[in-house]
TrEMBL record:
Active-site residues per Swiss-Prot or TrEMBL entry: D37, D245
Source species: Populus tomentosa
Domain Peptidase A1: 19-376
Keywords: Aspartyl protease, Hydrolase, Protease
Any one of the GO BP annotations: proteolysis
Family per similarity comment: Belongs to the peptidase A1 family.
Keyword Iron recorded: no
Superkingdom of this protein's organism: Eukaryota
Origin organism lineage: Eukaryota, Viridiplantae, Streptophyta, Embryophyta, Tracheophyta
GO terms, molecular function: aspartic-type endopeptidase activity
Name of the protein in question: Peptidase A1 domain-containing protein
Pfam families in alphabetical order: TAXi_C, TAXi_N
Length: 400
């Protein structure tokens, strides 16, 4: 288990609101662009099975053969159907799935199996059997993102996720990393396996471990805007769950913390920024009496957000800092907008969700072997290990 594989990442926070990579699936291998999502279990590709409700997609729909359909008795089928309303169906001819996402969009289909072609870090190629969703019915906002992509790449801790499948076949150690650049053009890279995890300079926190938790959770004990604490809700001593979610464009705070942050941001009105009610890009936007070309032009008016993990004692705690560039964005109207939203109706309503806007400029690693989450600041241009650079430069990227 000494292999790792790197995937180039395309996308941006605005206007697309998603980051995606590509995979080569089938015989002969066909490319599919997938929104990489640490908050999703199942990888699925739009599929002509036939398609009931599918978007055009970036590539031709996957066309399954009868032999590609996964039978209900397969262990991963039982795993996928375990959490579904209808439950496991032993008498069915195929393994049906249905997923509903936080924005109430959904994907429905059957499980399929086919060859996945991977390039590993030593430059060799490996083909392996891979189980994924053959998606023939998508509903809701999801259909908009499927203009540029063909589906979702599930990277959670669930047994059906891509890294879990690769680890169970002895191809990689179950470690995931991603790095999204802060450049306006977006992009970056992600990797599976532990060859590209820096040996020093990483901050690590323990992953919350529970059979029912397949997301990447940890606990935060303190949250500050500048030097001002924001409420985590409940008792003062109570830690709050925080979720790292690459499938979410923006960051979400529980209601109390969000309200206190918005109240703290009222102070920017006294320094030349005025709230814009006509800009509906995000709930809170400000205009200035000078042209705003990037967040750098206005960052001096805002403060750094600091998450503190482990203990409230500053000397021995671990911190994740989000500068203004990690929670602000420039709208098409040239205003600066707050990329932190009210999360009271997202997930369980009380969890902090770190989305792409706040994960940019950081190499984030999910180590499922040692059950910990780590990060270190990075420009996200290339993986850090020098022997990987030639491999990364030689990767085929995206057309268009």
């Amino acid at each position: 288990m000494d292999s790792s594989t790197i995937f180039p990442v395309r996308g941006n926070l605005h206007p697309d609101g998603l980051y995606f990579t590509y995979m080569l699936v089938g015989s002969p291998p066909q490319p599919y662009y997938l929104d990489f999502d640490t908050g999703s279990d199942l990888t699925w590709i739009q599929c002509d099975a036939p398609c009931t409700s599918c978007a055009k997609g970036a590539n031709a729909w996957y066309k399954p053969r009868r032999g590609n359909i996964v039978p209900p008795k397969d262990l991963l089928c039982m795993e996928v159907q375990r959490n579904q309303k209808a439950g496991y169906c032993e008498t069915c001819d195929q393994c049906d799935y249905e997923i509903e996402y936080a924005d109430h969009s959904s994907s429905m289909g059957v499980l399929a199996t086919d060859k996945l072609l991977l390039m590993v870090a030593n430059g060799s190629q490996t083909k392996l059997n891979f189980i994924f969703g053959c998606a023939y019915d998508q509903q809701g906002l999801l259909l908009k993102t499927l203009v540029k992509t063909d589906g979702i790449l599930g990277l959670s801790r669930a047994k059906v996720s891509l890294p879990s499948q690769l680890a169970s076949q002895g191809i990689i150690n179950n470690v995931i990393g991603h790095c999204l650049t802060t450049d306006v053009g977006g992009g970056g890279y992600m990797f599976l396996g532990d060859d590209f995890v820096p040996r020093w300079g990483m901050a690590w926190v323990p992953m919350l471990d529970s059979p029912s938790m397949e997301f990447y959770h940890t606990e935060v004990v303190k949250l500050n805007y500048g030097s001002s604490p924001l409420s985590l809700g409940g008792m003062e001593s109570r830690a709050k769950h925080i979720l790292f979610d690459s499938g979410s464009s923006y960051t979400y705070f529980p209601k109390e913390a969000y309200s206190e942050l918005v109240a703290s941001l009222n102070e920017v009105s006294g320094v030349g920024l005025v709230q814009s009610t006509s800009d509906t890009t995000l709930p809170l936007c400000w205009r200035a009496n000078f042209p705003i070309r990037s967040v750098k032009d206005v960052k001096k008016f805002f403060k750094t957000l600091t998450f503190q993990f482990g203990t409230k004692w500053l000397v021995i705690s671990t911190k994740f800092r989000i500068p203004p560039e990690g929670y602000l964005m420039i709208s098409d109207k040239g205003n600066v907008c707050l990329g932190i939203l009210d999360g009271s109706k997202v997930h369980d309503g009380s969890t902090i969700i770190l989305g792409d806007i706040s994960l940019r400029g950081q190499l984030v690693v999910y180590d499922n072997v040692n059950k910990k989450i780590g990060w270190t600041p990075s420009e996200c241009a290339k993986p850090k290990r020098s022997d990987s650079l030639q491999f990364f430069d030689g990767l085929p990227f995206f057309d268009g």
